[in-house]
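Hey, resending since the last one bounced:
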Amino acid sequence: ELTKVPNLVGGTFFLGGIYLAWFQLINIDSDKLNDNNVHYLWVSIDAVTDTGIENASYVGSLMYLLGAVLYSIAQVADFWELAPLWHNRLIDWPLIFGGFLFFTGGLCELKINKVFTSAPTCLVWWVSVLNCYGGLTFW
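The structure tokens again:
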């Protein structure tokens, strides 16, 4: 009970940060993507990859965003006493699927930062490994 509010606050800030990373990605070159229009939720994966960004960046960012949304749903639903069926639907399953999405986002980071094909010579290598492992533990 004591941790619900801090978890929700932390989860909300995390969701905000993940959304801003997504927002940056889908607007990386907005003058080329859609005649200077700003995108808020979605842009074609082809439009992003035409700017030279790997598919793994697009997919990984989307997985993190969806995972954070599912975690937020579970954190809000946890404030109420729910029947077991609704507890499973609104808390247990969103946490399981959200954790899986964090893990898949981490796998995309491993690919982007060439963790499987390079030695750990830079900080981003370790950040990718730890993000992926963190996603696995959320799952």
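The mean pLDDT is 91.

Sorry for the duplicate.
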